[in-house]
Specification:
mainly alpha, two-stranded antiparallel ribbon, 4 strands
Length: about 290
């Protein structure tokens, strides 16, 4: 129907222009930001899922750092106990040497001097080994360190994902064993030489005492090693989950440039066609006038 009051073609074309302009603007925004979802209007459900995935991913990233820091702390402690083992082995050598009948009193005096120095170093290692400025074992006769109580590591993005390491009992047993070996393993270092290997009889007894202490060190090192191994497996699992969760979020949030570029090109062509037809629709009114001539 030809009408001067209503140009149906122009109205339809105007609506098409508006629709195409909105779609083109959306495509350009996505291509400009790199995200398919730039507001909740784009995909409300997708945004909710992506936000939840991002929270999980970020939590796992922090948990991965936690596991690495935990392993580092365990390695510091294990390294200290490795040196304690070396010292105890040397002290056992001295005790074994002093226990034999061929050793003289002068020999035993020299051995006792070294034995006392090693006892002082044991106290230094136990009292001063630290991680991040905090002592791990605690000073002899002083405040307790980190490993003197159960440790809880946060190893995941949720409150339930924790790991407890309790080496306090083994550490207490080792502290008692070391105190029985040398009088120089004390908060206050004696001023006179010890008597632990000053005689053959005492030295012979000390051999078994040191052997028991070595067993205690081995038990504690095995606990720390097992905890470190578990944290390493936790890290590997978190890395796998984080990778796949990030990929899942990417499929929801990130724009597919190939698809969106093709879509933008299509909308640009439609905009050009719609604009051209809007211009042509004005000629409909001229047809009405031509009928009246």
């Amino acid at each position: 129907m030809l009408s001067l009051h209503t140009n149906a073609a122009a109205l339809s074309t105007t609506a098409a222009v508006g629709s195409n302009q909105k779609a083109l603007s959306t495509s350009m925004t996505r291509l400009g930001t790199g995200y398919r979802i730039n507001s909740a209007m784009d995909d409300a459900a997708g945004l909710q899922i992506a936000t939840r995935l991002e929270a999980q991913t970020r939590g796992m990233s922090v948990a991965m750092r936690n596991t690495q820091n935990g392993i580092s702390m365990m390695q510091v402690a294990e390294g200290a106990f490795e040196e304690v083992t070396n010292i105890l082995m040397r002290m056992k050598d001295l005790a074994t040497e002093s226990a034999t009948a061929s050793a003289t009193d002068d020999d035993r005096t020299a051995m006792q001097s070294e034995f006392d120095a090693l006892g002082s170093e044991l106290a230094n290692i136990i009292g001063n080994t630290s991680f991040g400025g905090e002592k791990l074992f605690g000073a002899v006769g002083g405040p307790d360190g980190k490993l003197s109580e159960a440790l809880t590591f946060q190893i995941g993005a949720t409150s339930d994902e924790t790991m407890e390491v309790d080496a306090s009992t083994a550490l207490t047993g080792l502290d008692t064993s070391l105190a029985a070996i040398s009088s120089f393993y004390d908060a206050t270092t004696p001023t006179t030489a010890g008597t632990e290997i000053a005689t053959a009889t005492a030295a012979n007894t000390m051999i078994d005492t040191i052997s028991d202490a070595l067993d205690d060190v081995g038990e504690l090192r095995s606990q720390l090693g097992a905890a470190s191994n578990r944290l390493d497996h936790v890290y590997n699992n978190l890395s796998n989950m984080s990778t796949n969760t990030t990929e899942a979020r990417s499929r929801i949030m990130d724009v597919d440039y190939a698809s969106e570029t093709a879509n933008m090109t299509s909308k640009q062509l439609l905009m050009q066609a719609s604009t051209s037809m809007l211009k042509q629709s004005s000629s409909m009114s001229q047809l009405v006038l031509s009928l009246m001539q």
